[in-house]
Specification:
By secondary structure, the protein is an all-alpha fold. Helix content is 62%, strand content 0%. The chain is globular.
Amino acid sequence: MEKRTKEIKIRLTAAEHQLLLDRCERTHLAEWLRQLGLGENTSRKRRVPGVAPELLRRVSGICNNLNHIALYLNQADFLTLSERVSLLAVLTSLDRHLGELLEQNRDR
């Protein structure tokens, strides 16, 4: 399978984004949009976690924001090495806590 390297960026209102998430029939919005636009039907099935969908969406959004923060901080020239290490420790801790939160709320 060819690796996907092209990206399309669209802007949505919060309401439009939520509407897409509500209509999404797949685990990932990108897969669902790709299927709609290209008529692509991937046979790869991912196990859907037994977590409340709203919690999963919110935690996913938080993780996405943390990834953007981590990317920005990794590219920042104004941070010392010790500051970067401290921030990495904080991000790692947040990631672990979010994982624990999802685990605690499984099948609720």
